[in-house]
Amino acid sequence: MSEGNKLRNIGPKSAAWLRQTGIRTHEDLVAVGALAAFVRVKRAGFKPSLNLLYALEGAILGCHWQDVPDERRNELVAAAGEEVAKLPLPKGKRMPAAAPVKTVHLDGDDEGAMAEPDFGFDDPSSSRDD
């Protein structure tokens, strides 16, 4: 966004993110809406905070981002949570499947001690033929 198209509440970094998602003017932002613009930025791989969402709404309303009413903020946060949850995880960021959890209870005097692992072969130090 050039100086003539500078959006209220939007700094240079956020403006660059918006440009990369096709939002260059106030009219573009109004047409898309704050929520969709925020989701576009997230989908593009950037990591905006919720302050960007409030700033976008403030830019549309023509007010400071802190003056966006709490009720509207709550609506935006809830809607953003739903929309962001639909986005695929970035490549290489997928969580590995968790292995099953097995609880081991130890009996006897060795309370809290770890069981000796069984690696499926004999311990060579216990049966040396010297």
Indicate the structural class. Answer: mainly alpha
Number of strands: 0
Number of helices: 5
CATH architecture of the domain at 3-85: Orthogonal Bundle
Q: What is the CATH superfamily classification of the domain at 3-85?
A: 5' to 3' exonuclease, C-terminal subdomain
Average pLDDT metric: 81
Note the main sheet. Answer: none
Protein name: Transcriptional regulator
Organism: Arenimonas caeni
Pfam families: TfoX_C
InterPro entries: TfoX-like, TfoX_C
How would you describe this structure to a colleague?
It is a single chain. The chain has 130 residues and is mainly alpha-helical. It has a domain at 3-85: 5' to 3' exonuclease, C-terminal subdomain (DNA polymerase, domain 1). Helices cover 42% and strands 0% of the residues. The chain is built from five helices and no strands. The chain has helices at residues 12-20, 26-32, 34-43, 50-61, 70-85. Helix 3 packs parallel to helix 5. It is elongated, with a radius of gyration of 27 Å. The mean pLDDT is 81. InterPro entries: TfoX-like, TfoX_C. Residues 6-79 form the TfoX C-terminal domain. Pfam families: TfoX_C.
Give the tags:
130 residues; DNA polymerase, domain 1; elongated
